[in-house]
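Model: You mentioned two targets. I'll fold them one after the other.
Researcher: Yes, keep them separate.
Model: Target one:
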Amino acid sequence: MSTRTLFSIVESPAHPDFSHLYKQLDIREVRLASMRKAISALKNDTPDYVVAEFFYGYGNNYAGVNVSNLDVFLYSLQKYAPHARVVVLVDRRERQFVEKLSALFPLHAVVTQPVREQDMEPLFGD
């Protein structure tokens, strides 16, 4: 089995560190500190998985056009890695808004925080 690649987009301190789990599953993790860096990385690397936090775009936070912090990245993902599986981590208070995002983009899984390794491991089986 060839090594799979995972983009871990860490935009807040609440993003759990599953580096150990990814290593156990023979998944190469690329940690990125912003959506801008993640979009740039797509041009050189094709992820099999993406793990990112969801932040709903209240009011005009995202120019009133996008649902969340993930929209622009997910549009780019459709172009550069259309088969990548997206795992969204969400705070329980914002869980209700993820449906708006899933209406626009295919999501592999939505996991409500706090998240444990045992919640994540089954999401990476092929």
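Model: Target two:
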Amino acid sequence: MLKALAESWILAVVLAALSAVPAQAAEDAALLKDLSSVIALLGLPCGQVVSARRLKDDDHVATCKDGNRYRVFIDAQGKLFAQKQ
């Protein structure tokens, strides 16, 4: 009985973890697309953001397909910036 309960609990934990992976992937894809758009709107060369590293809320380092890297952030006044790294 305890073995069956433990197996059920482990299965539930594994299924919960696996179901969270697609949600995170979709969130990451949306972030990369948003960062690509911001960089393009600011008139900087990039093409497409292929990876991003979060520094803190509204502050990321984006790596572009063409090799450029930008720190994309919102300052205290709410203005959006992208600084070449």
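Researcher: Noted. Anything on target two?
Model: The first strand starts at residue 49 and ends at 56.
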